[in-house]
Each structure stands twice: as structure tokens, then as C-alpha cells.
Amino acid sequence: MKEAKGQYSNMNIYEGTDQHGLFVELWQSESGEGAQQIKEERCSEHSSFAAVGEWISGGASKLHAWVFKPF
Fold first, then answer.
1. CA gap 61, 59 in Å, rounded
2. Which pLDDT belongs to residue 46?
3. What is the predicted pLDDT for the residue at 61?
4. For residues 70 and 26, is the Cβ–Cβ distance under 8 A?
5. Which residues, in sequence order, are CB contacts of 53 under 8 Å at separation 6+?
6. How many Å is the maximal CA-CA distance in the chain?
7. Is the dihedral of CA 8, 9, 15, 16 positive or negative?
8. Span between the terminal Cα atoms of the chain, in Å
9. CA dist., res. 38 & res. 71, Å (int)
């Protein structure tokens, strides 16, 4: 993941302090459409991140992704 973070200036990765093995990725996008594209790419089995699914208890089907907008 650290290698991937270096490739994307619009991504930050956080590790949970209360739950071992919990990681959160935050991606910045200029638009809702761009955010949706990031989400689709990130969740795709053809994504450069697909190998991360092997680290998830229960596999890639347990990966969750949401798009948020300012409130």
C-alpha cells in the first residue's frame, strides 16, 4: 500500500488505532463523476489494487467504497 500511495497524490491511507488491520483510503476528486470513476477503478478486479483483496478477511467482497460530498 505504501508503494501505491506514492503513485497517487490524490490518495491518503490511514490505519486504525483501535482495530488492528483496519485501513481507510481517502481519495480526492474534483467532481462527483471523477469520484465515481475512482470508486469503479478501485473496486475492479482488474485494478492495480486487486491484490489487496487477498489481505482482506473474507476476500475482496468485503471491500467497501463510498463517495461523499461536502455537507
1. 5
2. 84
3. 83
4. no
5. 59, 60, 63
6. 34
7. negative
8. 29
9. 20
Concatenating the DSSP letter of every residue in the chain gives: -HHHHHH-TTEEEEE-SSSTT-EEEEE--SSHHHHHHHHHHHHSTTSTTGGGGGGSTT-GGG---------
Residue 26 backbone zone (phi > 0: left; psi -120 to 50: alpha; other: beta): beta
> Residue length, the chain?
71
Per-residue model confidence (pLDDT) at position 5: 64
* pLDDT value at 56 more than 90: no
In the numeric block, which cell numbers belong to residue 68? 461523499
Residue 37 has pLDDT above 80, yes or no: yes
Which pLDDT tens digit goes with each residue over 5-14? 677 888 888 8
pTM for this predicted structure: 0.73
